[in-house]
Amino acid sequence: MSFSAFYVAARPVGRQGIRTMATRRAFASLTTTNSPVTIHPSPSEIRAQRLSDRNLETAVRHVHKDGLVVVEDVIPHDQLDLLNTKMVQDARSLQARGEDGPFNYNLGNLQQDAPPVKDYFFPSIFTNPIATQITSSVLGPCPKWTFNSANSAMPPLPGSSPQRQPVHSDADFAHLEHPFALVVNAPLITMTPENGSTEVWLGTHTGPELSGTHAQEGAHGERASGRIRKELLEKRREDGMGPIQPVVKKGSIVIRDLRLWHAGMPNSSQDVRVMLAMIHFAPWYRNKMRLEFAEDIKPVLEKLEEDRKLGLQVPVDWVSNENAMGGYLDKGFGNSYDFDQEK
Q1: Of 31, 87, 120, 196, which cross-links 267 as Cys (Cβ 3.0–4.6 Å)?
Q2: In this structure, what DSSP letter does residue 323 have?
Q3: Cross-referenced Pfam families, in alphabetical order (predicted)?
Q4: Measured between alpha carbons, how far is residue 86 from residues 32, 82, 335 in Å?
Q5: Which of 264, 302, 182 is nearest to 2 (CA)?
């Protein structure tokens, strides 16, 4: 890591199973704890696929306050394993493209889509009801799901050195000062500082001095857009609100405000670390992006909607399985997507 920090083990606090992974940073005589809140649902909540009112309140509060919250133990590991096996193979293929691949800021961080066919489409992952319960509570009923991809931290190739991303915001355009988009991240393996767990700067998603293009460098659409100005990073550190690089357990979901400062970190392990990213936009937000799925996923989504288990608007362009599998690895890098809304 490029910033001094150390980690202590997570411990349950109180009856609601809220855990924190405390991160401490010393500034002369000042010591500050700056950590994401992690919710550990009860067995009954996991069976019902729904958080209790108390845990939901906690999740919503920290999405607003910190710009990020973690919920553990909500995705079956066997489904993650099956998807991970395929996506690791795909990631190695994309890595071999080098400069022609869909990398984000550097070649060690790839943008890649999951195979958009039924064999790899698990509702517990892609339309996780607890994730949707949280995003609906923040953004309004039936958010629009219009982005479905992943970020993969790659082990360095022989002769190359691991690289980190600059601290940046994915909202690299003039955006609203209140929540309008939440990213649902799902790591396919446990994320650690060793394998490139994302660095996050809690609380940087809001406030006139932090959230906006005036705090950024690089024009929208450039490969390196959205970079946070160095003087703002230094001020944040001086105020005891520097970055953290938390451990996020396999089976967890992370809800992150699109505006939050963050950075992809080097992967010094030998394992590809894939983290899915689904973006839920507020139902009133006028973004025109659409998903592209194979036709065999359509009955899955229709059944979820019929059973009232979807809770999302899902604008999709349906294509044949052959076309879906033939083109899903040829998508753009992250900053080439337009998350803005129509004016």
Answers
A1: 196
A2: H
A3: PhyH
A4: 41, 7, 24
A5: 264
Burial class (CB in 10 A: 0-12, 13-18, 19+), 80: buried
Evaluate whether 136 touches 309 at the Cβ level (below 8 Å): no
Report how far apart, in Å, the C-alpha atoms of 80 and of each of 72, 74, 99, 247 are.
14, 11, 29, 17
Domains, the chain, ordered by start: 76-331 (2.60.120.620)
Q: What is residue 27's predicted lDDT score, i.e. its pLDDT? A: 26
Task: Give residue for tokens 């139902």.
Answer: 283
Q: CA 37, CA 4: separation in Å to the nearest integer?
A: 21
Helix (H, G, I), strand (E, B) or coil at 255: strand
pLDDT for residue 7:
29
Q: If you write DSSP's letter for every residue of 32-96 in order, what string do you get?
A: EE---EEE---HHHHHHTS--HHHHHHHHHHHHHTSEEEE-S-S-HHHHHHHHHHHHHHHHHHHT
Q: State residue 28's pLDDT score.
A: 25
Query: Encoding tokens for residue 230?
Result: 């160095």
C-alpha 195, offset from chain centre: 16
Give the number of other CB atoms < 10 A from CB of residue 107. Answer: 17
Question: For residue 174, what are the contacts with CB-CB under 8 A and spacing of at least 6?
Answer: 212, 213, 340
Sheet holding 68-71, edge to edge: 11-13, 18-20, 37-39, 68-71, 253-257, 181-187, 273-281, 144-153, 106-112, 103-104
Q: Is the pTM of this model over 0.85?
A: yes
Output the six-digit token pair for 182: 């939440």
Terminal-to-terminal C-alpha distance of the chain: 40
pLDDT of 30 reads 28
The pLDDT of residue 156: 87
pLDDT of residue 333: 84
Q: What's the DSSP call for residue 263?
A: E
Q: CB count, 10 Å around CB of 111? A: 21
At 244 the pLDDT is: 97
